[in-house]
Amino acid sequence: MSLKEEIKHNPLPQHVAIIMDGNGRWAKKKGFLRAIGHENGVDALRNIATASAEVGIKYLTVYAFSSENWNRPRAEVNALMALLVSSLRKELKTLTKNNISLNTIGKTDSLPLKCQRELQEVIEKTSKLDHMTLTLALSYGSREEITEATRTLARDVKAGKLDPEDISEEHISHNLFTRGLPDPDLLIRTSGEYRISNYMLWQIAYSELYFTDKLWPDFGAEDLFKAILDYQRRERRFGKISEQLNS
Ligand code: IPE
Ligand code: IPE
Ligand code: MG
Predict the structure, then answer these.
(1) Topology of 3-141+186-196+203-234 in CATH?
(2) What are the boundaries of each domain within the chain?
(3) Quick one: pLDDT at residue 35?
(4) Distance, CA 200 to ligand 2 centroid (Å)?
(5) Average pLDDT over residues 118-147
(6) Active site residue: 10, 40, 69, 223, which one?
(7) Spacing, Cα 80 to ligand 3 middle (Å)
């Protein structure tokens, strides 16, 4: 049985999050410029988004540019922003064909205006598509996100609209960029790095983590299915004991 068939026998993760890492090393290994690695990273994302939608994942959230990535050499940042614009233009048809709506999390207002306009257009044009939601984390940093949520709640308290005693986990969740998205069930990181790099710190409290040495441009549908199969073999106990789960 193919992996794709095999994963259909058990519940799928509803929300898969991915830290798409390793484009630079992939390029270096082949003697290419880093930008070529990023271009091949877009191809990998197209494959993974299409495969995810095909098997029935409802939410795919990918880390495309972190708030810390602004500190990369100017030329690389510019190349990434240009790639974002050209990919959005090219991939509208992929999204439409696969019934995928586009969404973003992060401080997208700090992106170049051209990126913002292109994003807005694709988000609007795909807003009614409902088979899967693809969320791009762009200029995203989780600490920044939590800080901003705290600021919003503090303002509400100051204005007398919120009693500090009433602040719940939901108040925090609802003030994060991910408002409306369920928490990720499965978080995948490629390229052999074992860290979270400021990605969805609050939201991954109980996500299953999966690390692979594959560099992002080499990560294909079979690798995704392998990660899902691994996820399906785990027991998510949420603090309980095994015997409590089936009753
Ligand atoms: C991930 O690949 C893409 C972005 C962070 C934009 P990297 O560019 O981090 O690739 P490595 O980690 O240098 O190999
Ligand atoms: C994390 O990758 C961010 C993205 C994949 C967009 P990095 O390559 O920036 O992470 P660190 O800095 O090595 O932790
Ligand atoms: Mg990296």
Answers:
(1) Undecaprenyl pyrophosphate synthetase (3.40.1180)
(2) 3-141+186-196+203-234
(3) 98
(4) 13
(5) 98
(6) 69
(7) 13
